């Protein structure tokens, strides 16, 4: 059985094609393209015309790949930028007209649930309560739970593209702008702080391109050995703090030269790291668990309604 998930994120579009046999998941094709549909419009509540063109073109490319793999069982999901844009449905109509691929707009709550399912499918959560954090371009999802249940979840419209537009107007980001962002987060994330105080998570699990990039930088700079088929990494807090300080003092050109830096993340990684820094101050932990599974794997998991092992 071949299935495909298309994830239309604010910054990146993902295509994920898998084959399922005896409850084993085998990845056939995986691609991510930096479409950046939130650029020049997300803070104003619409998707810019050039971004719509990039989006439709990318889905046409994905359709060609789907046809090559003879995949007809396709689920497409759209998140923050599209669900909040005045012309979001117009974009999805254009995509359907051009490709016959139907995309569902999912709520922030549903997005949080699916992210948690993906993280749980990776085996990243045990019996103790953890805080799961997924930083998108438009929204950030926080989920508190363990391997049995979700205790609390919330999607905040404070994604990296929105933070970039609001706070990172000079490069490097001035200390005054960092302080301003932290003061703003203190107000915006009051519900998160209350939930952390109530459920007392013992650790932080991060999933998204930002955490992938931080892990990549850590391994390149430390020259540490890494698993061949990783789903879960432990990033020491001290190492993260060192990387964070490095990101704050460098401009874009210098950030691009950091070993392990992923070019599509170079603009948003500073504000995203500031957000991580804020959250790590709320949770006493010696490392961040970085998980490579998130929304698209959660969609697959929910399609099957049972755990799926990954074939290496």
Could you explain how this protein is built, in words?
Helix content is 44%, strand content 22%. With 312 residues, it is α/β, with parallel strands linked by helices. A hairpin with a 4-residue loop joins strand 1 and strand 2. The chain is globular, with a radius of gyration of 19 Å. It starts with a strand and ends with a strand.
Write the layout of secondary structure elements.
Blueprint: E1 2-8, E2 13-21, E3 24-33, H1 49-68, E4 74-78, H2 80-84, H3 88-99, E5 103-105, H4 108-121, E6 130-135, E7 140-145, E8 150-156, H5 160-167, H6 175-188, H7 190-199, E9 203-206, H8 209-222, E10 232-236, H9 237-249, H10 252-256, H11 269-280, E11 287-291, H12 295-304, E12 309-310
Parallel strand pairs: 1-4, 3-12, 4-5, 6-9, 9-11
Antiparallel strand pairs: 1-2, 2-3, 6-7, 7-8, 10-11
Helix pairs in contact: 1-3, 4-12, 5-11, 6-11, 9-11
